[in-house]
Amino acid sequence: TLVVRIADQTGAEPSAIAFAFAAVRDSYDMPERNEEINALDGKVAGKVQLSLYAAVQDLLLDRLVWFLRNADLTKGLAGVVEHYRKGIAAVSGALDKALPKDAAAARASRGKELIDAGVPEVLARRIADIPEVAAAPDMVLVADRTKKPIAAIVATYFCGAGNVTAEPS
């Protein structure tokens, strides 16, 4: 099962895994995303709807191990969720200015494909943002440690990703 695999991979107790699961789920507002996807029953192709669920699930599984290894779980679930939810929202809000051209074009293309498939624009954008916001907890952690604003961390993160071609000054 998933819990056994994660326990083997991290050495974490099942209670810590459950805590991290809830922290990721709620930090990324996944119940709300799933409800938005549920509302598409009969409105979009089943394959499209399943791909949306898969994108959310993949994000959850990917970030679960990160939260186990990096989040300060001593803050309690509500504290962890509040901290990371705010940080994830800040990262998401900074993407329009921070993404290099290639990444911004790929993000826009992902969103357009979903909209063209009948996914509402707001949900399409949230799903299209997943590849970039997956790294949001890393950026929050760096902001915490450096005491720098999240927007500066986001800009630095994407600039350092090797996708930017600097213009000569």
How would you portray this structure in words?
The chain is mainly alpha-helical and 169 residues long. Helix content is 76%, strand content 0%. It contains ten helices and no strands. It is globular and about 45 Å long.
Count of helical stretches: 10
Characterize the overall form. Answer: globular
User: Radius of gyration in whole Å, from Cα?
Assistant: 17 Å
Provide the β-strand percentage band: under 5%
What are the secondary-structure elements, in order, as H or E?
Answer: HHHHHHHHHH
Please bin the fraction of helical residues.
over 70%
Largest sheet: none
For this structure, the quaternary state is single chain
* Poorly predicted segments: 162-169
Number of strand segments? 0
| Structural class computed from helices and strand pairing | mainly alpha
Straight-line N-to-C gap = 55 Å
Q: How much is the average pLDDT?
A: 91
Can you give me a brief rundown of this structure?
This protein is an all-alpha fold and 169 residues long.
Could you outline the blueprint of secondary structure elements for this entry?
Elements: H1 2-10, H2 14-27, H3 30-38, H4 46-70, H5 76-98, H6 101-116, H7 121-128, H8 130-133, H9 136-146, H10 150-159
Helix pairs in contact: 2-4, 2-5, 3-4, 5-9, 5-10, 6-7, 9-10
Please supply descriptive tags for the structure shown above.
mainly alpha, 169 residues
